[in-house]
Amino acid sequence: MNDMTALPIALFDSGVGGLTVLKALRQCLPHEDLLYLGDTARLPYGTKGPETIVRYTLLAARMLVGRGAKMLVVACNTATAAALPTLQEALAPLPVLGVVEPGARAAAAASRNGEIVVIATEATISGGAYQQAIVRIRPEAQVRGRACTLFVPMAEEGLMHGPLAEGLAHHYLDDIFNPALTAPRPDTLLLGCTHFPLLQTALQNVVGPQVHIVDSAATTAACVSERLAQTNLLRPADRPGTSHFMTTDNRARFVRTGSLFLGERLHNADVELVDL
Amino acid sequence: MNDMTALPIALFDSGVGGLTVLKALRQCLPHEDLLYLGDTARLPYGTKGPETIVRYTLLAARMLVGRGAKMLVVACNTATAAALPTLQEALAPLPVLGVVEPGARAAAAASRNGEIVVIATEATISGGAYQQAIVRIRPEAQVRGRACTLFVPMAEEGLMHGPLAEGLAHHYLDDIFNPALTAPRPDTLLLGCTHFPLLQTALQNVVGPQVHIVDSAATTAACVSERLAQTNLLRPADRPGTSHFMTTDNRARFVRTGSLFLGERLHNADVELVDL
C-alpha cells in the first residue's frame, strides 16, 4: 500500500488556460483529487523572457508541492517550454510532467505526410521547444511554428466562434494552409497552447476538415494517466475526485473566465486567493 | 533660477501604451528630457485587482523618482484610476499627474449633448474613475463605460486598421452607437486607455464622423505643459530634449512594439532592462 496515492495531482498554469488540461484529467481519471494554481497576478507568461518565466514557475511549483502532491503537471506550454528541466531537477524525485512532449508525440504520430504546423504563444514558438520535440521523435518531419498571440485574450473574452475568431485564424494561418500554394500542404495542426482547444471549431473551419487538429491538453491527460499507472500511484476508486482551485489575483475574473474553460459554472467559494 | 528645471519628466506605464503620452509630450514640450519606464514583466495591469496595481505602481514610481525627476506622469489609465491618490501622497511634494482627469475634462468640454462613452480596460471601467471624473465636472452628463479588453493586444500586434480592428470595434460598440436606437446617441467617445489612439481611424470609421473622439494622451500632454509653466519648471530651450527608455522584461519586444506606439524606430541600445 502506497500512501502517496491519496495525494492530489497538482496543476500549474499562468492563468485559466490549464483548466483545459484539468478538464481532460477529470474525464480520464475521475477518482483523482486535483489541485490547480493559476498565477493570474503575473499572466501572461507568453510575452515574457525565459529567465522571468523560470523564476515565476519555480515559485509557484514550490508553493503547490508544499501543500502535498504526488505529481506536478505544468499545464502551461510557455512554462513547460522554458522551465521543465529546471523544475524536474529542483523537485526530484517528484514526477513533473509538461504539455510539450505529449503534444509533440501525438502530432508526430498523427501526421501522414510529416508536414506539421504548431501554433502557440510568441515565447513558446520562439523558444522552439515543440519544433525540436517533434523532430527528435520524427526526424524527417517538416515543422513550422506560428505565434498566434491574440487567440489567448480572444478565448478569455469568450470570442471562440464566429467571424472574429475565424477572421483572426485566417490572418494567422492563410499563408500556410492556402490550397493554392505549391509547397506540400500540412496535414496536422498542433494546438501548442492550453487556450486553443476553445477555438478548435473555428480553426477547423479555417484550415479545412482534412487537417488533423491535435490538442495537447487531451494528450497530456492520457500521459498523466499512463505515468500514474506505471508507478502505482493511481487513487483507489472509492469516491469521485475533488478539484480545488487557487488564483493569485482577481478571483471574480478567474471564476468568470475559468467557467468558460472548464465548461461548467465555477463559484467564488470554489476558488482560493493565494499570495506567492 | 530653479535647478529642478534640468531634471527629466518621469513617465510610468505597465507596458508600451504610455509611449503615446510620451509622443504627445515630445510634440508639446520638445526641450524636456523624458524618462520612461514600462513594467512589461507584470503587464497587463488592466485585468488585475486594485491592491496589486497599487503595489506595483508604488514600486515603479519610487524607482523612477530615485533616478531624479521633477514630475511624475502616470501614463497608464489603469494605474491612474487605481493608484493616483496613493502616489500623490507617497511622493509629495513631487507633482504627480495622471491621465484620467485631463481626459475627463476634455470629454466634458467636447460633448454638446452630454452623452459621453468611455472605452478602457476592464479594471479602469469597473473602477469607475472616468465616469466619476466626468460627472464631477459636468453633473448632468450621461456617461457610459465599456470595457474593450481586446483592443490592447490587438494594437500591440499591429492590427490597428482593417476588417479585424473594425470588426472588434463593432462587437464592442454597435449596441451603443447604433443609429436605429431611440435613446439619445452619444456625440463623444473618450479613449480611456493609452493604447487606443492607435485604433483611432478604425474607431472613427465604426462610430461615424459626427462622433468626437477625445484622446487622453494628447490632453495629458497639454496638462503637463500647463503645470510646468505654472510652477516655473520648464526646461530652457538650449537643446532638444532626450528620451530614455526602461523596461522590466523582454527588451526585444519593447523595441518592436514600442516602435509602433512611438511612430519611429526604437533600437536595442535605446532601451535599458531594469529589475524592480
Describe this structure in words.
The structure is a homodimer. In chain A, strand 7, helix 9 and strand 8 form a beta-alpha-beta unit. The first copy, chain A, has about 280 residues and is an alpha/beta fold. Chain A folds into two domains: about 150 residues, Rossmann fold (3-Layer(aba) Sandwich); about 120 residues, Rossmann fold, CATH 3.40.50. The first copy, chain A, starts with 8 loop residues before the first strand and ends with a strand. In chain A, helix 4 crosses helix 10. In chain A, the strands form two sheets. Chain A has a six-stranded parallel sheet, sandwiched between helices. Chain A has a four-stranded parallel sheet with strand order 6-5-7-8, with helices on both faces. The first copy, chain A, has eleven helices and ten strands. Chains A and B meet through helix 7 and helix 8 of A and helix 7 and helix 8 of B.
Keywords summarizing the entry:
homodimer, alpha/beta, Rossmann fold, 2 domains, four-stranded parallel sheet, 11 helices, 10 strands, 45% helix, globular
- Main β-sheet of chain A, in a few words? 6 strands, parallel
Content-based structural category of chain A: alpha/beta
N/C terminus separation of chain A: 34 Å
Count every beta strand of chain A, where a strand is a DSSP E run of 2 or more residues. Answer: 10
Residue stretches of chain A low in confidence (pLDDT < 50, at least 5 long) are: none
Oligomer classification:
homodimer
The residue-averaged pLDDT of chain A reads: 92
Overall 3D form of chain A: globular
Number of separate helices of chain A: 11
In CATH's first tier, which class of the largest domain in chain A applies? Answer: Alpha Beta
Q: What is CATH's topology name of the largest domain in chain A? A: Rossmann fold
Main sheet strand line-up of chain A: 4-3-1-2-9-10
Number of domains of chain A: 2
